[in-house]
Amino acid sequence: MPSARETELLEAAYRYVLTHGLADVSLRPLAAAIGSSTRVLLYLFGSKEGLVRALLARARADELALLADIGVGPGVVARLWAWLSAPAHRPLLTLWLEAYARSLVEPDGPWAGFARATVEDWLEVLRASQPADVRDTADGLATRTRELALLRGALLDLLATGDEQRVSAALA
Amino acid sequence: MPSARETELLEAAYRYVLTHGLADVSLRPLAAAIGSSTRVLLYLFGSKEGLVRALLARARADELALLADIGVGPGVVARLWAWLSAPAHRPLLTLWLEAYARSLVEPDGPWAGFARATVEDWLEVLRASQPADVRDTADGLATRTRELALLRGALLDLLATGDEQRVSAALA
DNA sequence: GCATTACTGAAACAGTCGTGTCAGTGGAGG
DNA sequence: CCTCCACTGACACGACTGTTTCAGTAATGC
């Protein structure tokens, strides 16, 4: 049950890491940037690990909100790609990739399970969007795994090159 | 023109970061693990940034050697996936992803351009493997971009879940 | 033999890290 | 009024960071 001040500072910290990255964030610069102090951050979140965990949960909340907003049914892949390729979402997606990579390198700590969780979240949405008669077949599983791979791979490409035209054309 | 001792230590350091990650490596633990000292690492590589740069170049050399070894022509995608999905290559690929993400978050420093460079390397191999009559068409570009996305996205999935059966089936 | 070169050890530098301690605020409820 | 509670400021602690200084050692080339 977070207090008002806690969610307020979490939002500010979230905005901060979206532009500065999560990997080598440190308390003092972060606190200074959001008009707080290390003392308060530690008081509210217990430890730096607690803060990172809260930030990761915050990012995940954004992701789940997106998936809920996209909905299910025909055309999900296109709708997902429209969202992923929107320039405004690039900082979030870079943060997402950073957390993904980190959770693979360091399977313990606050990052644990982040990568696996997002794979499952997305696969579930794709599954719900499949016709009922293929949803539980091996073919259906293969299809949505392929769709997910295509989206994620295209995202990697887009984040690195910024070449939206080429990547979007490849997905059409 | 690196000295013998330099390449020897670089190999040892490379083996170290393959298991420990590159993001939060620090000189003293690294030096202790490979039987050296910070003094020597700094002497040989100039600075930590120089060392990281050398390690990134080393990883990239592995990648380019792979691409040369795979060759070009029909079936490249399958051959590439066989290599990517081999369990023995997982540490290298995790390191690769880590460097990829980092180069997006921090476009300056030793990581600069890593992500973009690998996209271009791989696209070029896929291009060389296409029939001559589509190689320079918009369709050819879209096709190889899609093939690359599929491979990279599948790799992300595999690294997170380890579910080689599902992911490989999706690529078939 | 002697100077040059490549490498190495020990210790210290200034700075940053996360965290703990101690002492306060200010407002809300009894 | 007074107590409780959420929050905050200042400061210090020990550990760790990359880097530098000063001092060697061992081998190589002349």
Q: What features would you highlight for this structure?
A:
elongated, 172 residues, homodimer, mainly alpha, DNA-binding
Sum this structure up briefly.
Two copies of one chain form a homodimer. Chain A has nine helices and no strands.
Word description of this protein:
The structure is a homodimer of 172-residue chains. Chain A is 74% helix and 0% strand. Chain A is an all-alpha fold and 172 residues long. In chain A, helix 4 (48-70) packs parallel to helix 7 and helix 7 packs across helix 8 (138-161). The longest helix of chain A is centred in the last third of the chain and has 24 residues, at 138-161. The radius of gyration of chain A is 18 Å and the shape is elongated. Chains A and B meet through helix 6, helix 7, helix 8 and helix 9 of A and helix 6, helix 7, helix 8 and helix 9 of B. Chain A binds a DNA duplex (30 and 30 nucleotides) through residues 3, 5, 26-28, 36-40, 42-44, 47-48.
